[in-house]
Design a protein that fits this description.
two-stranded antiparallel sheet; elongated; 96 residues; two-stranded antiparallel ribbon; 2 helices; single chain; 23% helix; alpha+beta
Length: 96
Amino acid sequence: MSAALFTQDLFEDYASESDQWLEEIGEEFETAWYLSKTTTTLDADVTWTVDSKTVEADSRLIHMDFDGNGTVNRDDIKLCWITLPVTGRKFCSGLR
């Protein structure tokens, strides 16, 4: 089971056009936060339930934690596919 959680992204830029000019001449300037047209992912600690019972991750998945951060997620898949050609293996199992 998985879920993709996201929200609108933010970016920091000059508060006004004159602030960009102030920075260019080495003077103090202001910045402001703006809403982006893109989204950004949200890290979440979620619990799945089925028929009012908590679904636990299969403990065997911890062997798929290739980056060693204690979670099994898409970063492990990326690392797995990058290391396959280097290791000459056909599968990622036990690659640490």
